[in-house]
Amino acid sequence: MTDFFKDCPRIAYEGPDSPNDFAFRHYNPDEMVGDKSLKDHLRFAVAYWHSFAWPGGDPFGGQTFERPWFTDDMAGARMKADVAFEMFEILGAPYFCFHDADVRPEGATFAESEDRLKEITDIFASKMEATGVKLLWGTANLFSHRRFMSGAATNPDPEIYAYAAATVKSCMDATLALGGENYVLWGGREGYETLLNTDLKRERAQAGAFLQRAVEYKHKIGFKGAILIEPKPQEPTKHQYDYDVATVYGFLKEYGLEDEVQVNIEQGHAILAGHSFEHEIALASALGIFGSIDMNRNDYQSGWDTDQFPDNPREVALAYYEILRAGGFTTGGTNFDAKLRRQSLDPADLILAHAGAMDVCARGLKAAAAMLDDGGLEAARQARYAGWDASDIASRDFESIHAQVSGSGLQPEPKSGRQERLENYISRFV
């Protein structure tokens, strides 16, 4: 045990009128919504990187957080693991997620880094058995180290491609050993800074080959979880090859992977791509590649990826509506890819940020379930397209359609989309 969270009691549900900061007001994990508990619907996960590895810097200033485990040795990594699982228990969080670089310091060689990851994997396994906390997904950090400044799979140097592939193998092995339910590939630098030195065709082919090998290895080791790609349009690169859900789907189709790989959609990334969160979820569901979500938000005045904790139940409700409409999560869940503001220095801030976000998500999911049960949106949608139910027009050729239209005197009139009415409808539930 550590004393880092010594002033933070375990968070329990006390209801919407509770004045206690250290309480859930809306998230009762055992509350049944339909045929599932809120815990099983939401499948909350804590992100190891933002919660325990991020030092509080920004583009204009360095570290603001002082954590006793911020060292470059394995003693610090072991302390970090102790603190992390204490936090999971305080929150009652059923899952966590990690990159390799979050949980162990970089070694002098690849072999040393891998050995350190294996040591932490064993520590995690023991703690997971003792607490019941599970791994939602693992992943490899292929973007922070200077070797990856020009990408990993898309790097112009084949030796760096090889290093990245070996790293992913190690992280997939760790994820399998810990019973992880998914494995994520986020190409933070799989893009370009300038076209002046970039061969787009070659780099995309490298990325396709890399993903194919990852899928092959998944089957070879018997990993039953999903392989997930996390789309993002830009930042840190000028342009990333996994720009948004539609772009990822086209990429998967090109390399024959549309039945093998799904997407992990982040709210902040959706906004950067010019979409809403619910749009990306709905499109992924329609294409059959929806897997999981990273829940956060951006500051809409900043225009970049600020990774703040969610605080808008209406936005969250619209996202969960599309998730529930598609049948809910299977192997995926709600990972808080969110970080404290760099002025939030207290250990309690880390607990309360997650507790508040869990409440917001619970409010949103319950509103989404109520809307789905009520059926108002689905009825409106069905009515809008009702004319297609008895029409064969899409299967006919243009000549026959032309003959019908020109001979009938057809003069169709537009019908209202009733957007404001539907927006008012949403407000009844949130």
Automatic annotation (TrEMBL):
Could you tell me where this protein is found in the cell?
Cytoplasm
In terms of PROSITE patterns, this protein maps to:
XYLOSE_ISOMERASE
Record-listed E.C. numbers = 5.3.1.5
Give a GO molecular function annotation for the protein.
xylose isomerase activity
Cofactor note (record)? Binds 2 magnesium ions per subunit.
Highest rank taxon of the organism: Bacteria
Positions binding Mg(2+) 1 in this chain are: 230, 266, 294, 337
Can you state which reaction this protein catalyses?
alpha-D-xylose = alpha-D-xylulofuranose
Q: Where is the signal peptide?
A: none
Q: Where does Mg(2+) 2 bind?
A: 266, 269, 305, 307
Cofactor field: Mg(2+)
By sequence similarity, the record places it as follows: Belongs to the xylose isomerase family.
Partners and quaternary state?
Homotetramer.
* Identification of the protein by name: Xylose isomerase
Q: Supply the source organism for this entry.
A: Boseongicola aestuarii
Q: What is the lineage of its organism?
A: Bacteria, Pseudomonadati, Pseudomonadota, Alphaproteobacteria, Rhodobacterales
The coding gene here is xylA
